[in-house]
Amino acid sequence: MKQAVAAYGRFFETIAPDSLDRLDGIVAPDVRFVDPFNDVTGIEKYRAVFRHMFETVEQPRFTILRTAIEGDTAFYRWRFSFRRKGAVEIWTIEGMSEVRFRPDGLVAEHVDHWDAASQLYERLPVLGALLRWVRRKLAV
């Protein structure tokens, strides 16, 4: 289990467009992936999520900050940095992935937990102003 957890973490820290074929030896054919934008099942749809990432952002980089294992599930605390196409500013998102492994070590399910509102939407010009106003109204 520890080897599978480490291998999956290494995959994310070294992810590149030409490394997506390595998913075949790391995730199950019917893997489920969930994040604030996607809920897909199947290795090809999972791979498509990453292809889309490489098409829409520049210099994407995941850094695994911490890992914990409980039974068949690993929890990865991570930082994702990227640059929007044509932009200068580097954006950073922090989150947690809950990853369930099958007995053979392949990833069965990967669920990302991160706050899309505060870490992404609030940074967008028009939508961000509205969301920041709502957040202030709801704050104690």
TrEMBL record:
Pfam families: SnoaL_2 (PF12680). Residues 10-110 form the SnoaL-like domain. It comes from Oceanibaculum indicum P24. This is SnoaL-like domain-containing protein. Transmembrane segments: none annotated. InterPro entries: NTF2-like_dom_sf, SnoaL-like. It comes from the Bacteria. Coiled coil: none annotated. Gene3D superfamilies: 3.10.450.50. The lineage of its organism: Bacteria, Pseudomonadati, Pseudomonadota, Alphaproteobacteria, Rhodospirillales.
